[in-house]
Design the sequence.
């Protein structure tokens, strides 16, 4: 029986996770709109739900993970209308819209690979499901919650609520207040109510991306694609729907209305939302000049960065804040994440080298390690609490370092606890958090050779009892944040 609990945005409560059809789990995450480079906020969302996907598999669930690509129909205002971003970018770059789609889809996949974000089991596109979107729009018209107007199709929010449903169930919005607050927008005269949103839009002659439909040439609304693809691949009801907090309204609210209007039942058991990113206490935005692309962290090519940071450092930084909490990125936070990641990775390396020889089991030590291993699962079962998991792994890493510096032996744990330590540390660090050893560059190889020369010179000085030279080397390396570790099997170095 699962002990996993999830904070459900829909019910505003933390609930025990009970899959609809265990051990199978259906997980849907709103993917990128591929008209520009994926931004850091998107990256945090995809890393956060990569953690969810990984942990569900770690628990033994068979997960079908669907993450879509929005390559048509993502319109710019809250009513799901306005200008089409793909077309705007295509005109700006003087390319075909599908060239824009291909260019930025490839870029998104590159970011996923570099940040070790697992590919979904299915990655459908909006343009690949035009027929299904037309069919759902027809079903909504037939069910009396949508209508055609001048070649466009709109969802009728008032008619939906009059049938006893609740538009606003996810976000807590009131439709009368929403209607009163809506601005005058293009095409409003076609609607019955200002709050009604587009399922299908009539295309003007200059609109490049358009398809035939029963209502004439047009293109789908933004919200419809996710309802169609989640239903097609996960069923009318599935377990988890994930996305950024900025999608809660209107996108996810509209999804619920479409699914309920077409199928007559709530589509999702657990709604999960990531929170926002700040940089130095301010919301990240282009207008403030603090919007940093994921790849700019890797290159260091941004005026607000002091140096390049590895993809794993950024991923690890994200893991130190709960997915539902705001995360404030600072240079100090990045530097601390870099050091913390190095400590955990070094401990993983040391763990491979440790020799296990249980001479005398120390009950207190044995229980402490065993309890820490159990804590890793307990904190992840509490709504995927990665920050507490990281803190627990740090405690284990400290003990691993002690073992390593004490003759590289573990001789006070039971067999069961030792095996638990191995499985827990490596399993949660690599399989669950998704961290990985980063490739050694040529510079690192050169550093290894240079450090070996320094170590040899220091050894020769010590053999000659030239303590002045030996201490001078040690102190100079310390200032450069490099530690020398002397052991009976030789001397090693570590960058602090």
Sequence:
């Amino acid at each position: 029986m699962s002990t996993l609990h999830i904070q459900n945005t829909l019910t505003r409560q933390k609930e025990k996770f009970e899959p609809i059809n265990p051990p199978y789990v259906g997980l849907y995450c709103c993917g990128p709109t591929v008209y520009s480079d994926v931004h850091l906020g998107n990256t945090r969302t995809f890393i956060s739900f990569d953690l969810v996907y990984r942990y569900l598999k770690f628990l033994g669930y068979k997960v079908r993970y669907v993450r879509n690509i929005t390559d048509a129909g993502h319109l710019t205002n809250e009513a799901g209308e306005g200008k089409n971003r793909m077309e705007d970018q295509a005109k700006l770059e003087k390319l075909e819209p599908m060239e824009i789609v291909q260019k930025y889809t490839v870029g998104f996949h590159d970011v996923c690979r570099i940040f070790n974000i697992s590919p979904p089991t299915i990655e459908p596109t909006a343009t690949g499901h035009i027929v299904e979107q037309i069919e759902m729009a027809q079903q909504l018209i037939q069910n009396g919650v949508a209508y055609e107007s001048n070649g466009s199709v709109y969802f009728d929010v008032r008619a939906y609520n009059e049938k006893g449903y609740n538009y606003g169930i996810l976000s807590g919005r009131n439709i009368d207040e929403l209607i009163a607050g809506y601005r005058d927008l293009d095409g409003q005269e076609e609607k019955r109510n200002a709050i009604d949103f587009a399922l299908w839009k009539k295309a003007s002659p200059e609109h490049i991306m358009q398809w035939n439909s029963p209502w004439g040439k047009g293109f789908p609304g933004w919200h419809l694609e996710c309802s169609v693809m989640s239903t097609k691949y996960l069923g009318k009801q599935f377990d988890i729907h994930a996305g950024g907090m900025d999608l809660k309204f209107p996108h996810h609210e509209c999804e619920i209305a479409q699914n309920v209007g077409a199928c007559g039942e709530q589509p999702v058991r657990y709604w999960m939302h990531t929170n926002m990113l700040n940089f130095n206490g301010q919301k990240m935005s282009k207008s403030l000049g603090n919007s940093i692309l994921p790849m700019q962290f890797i290159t260091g090519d941004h005026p607000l960065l002091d140096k390049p940071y590895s993809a794993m450092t950024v991923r690890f930084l994200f893991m130190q804040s709960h997915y539902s909490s705001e995360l404030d990125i600072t240079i100090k936070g990045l530097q601390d994440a870099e050091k913390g990641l190095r400590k955990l990775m070094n401990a993983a390396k040391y763990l491979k080298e440790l020799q296990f020889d249980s001479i005398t089991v120390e009950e207190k030590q044995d229980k402490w390690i065993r309890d820490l291993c159990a804590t890793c699962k307990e904190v992840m079962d509490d709504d995927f609490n990665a920050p507490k998991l990281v803190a627990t792994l740090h405690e284990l890493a400290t003990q691993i370092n002690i073992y390593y510096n004490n003759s590289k032996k573990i001789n006070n744990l039971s067999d069961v606890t030792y095996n638990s330590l191995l499985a827990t540390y490596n399993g949660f660090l690599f399989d669950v958090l998704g961290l990985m050893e980063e490739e050694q560059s040529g510079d690192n190889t050169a550093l290894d050779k240079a450090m070996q020369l320094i170590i040899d010179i220091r050894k020769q000085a010590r053999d000659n009892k030239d303590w002045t030279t030996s201490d001078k080397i040690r102190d100079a390396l310390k200032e450069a944040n490099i530690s020398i570790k002397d052991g009976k099997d030789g001397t090693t170095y570590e960058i602090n």
In short: The mean pLDDT is 91. The radius of gyration is 27 Å. The CA atoms of residues 227 and 255 lie 5 Å apart. The chain has 16 helices and 17 strands.
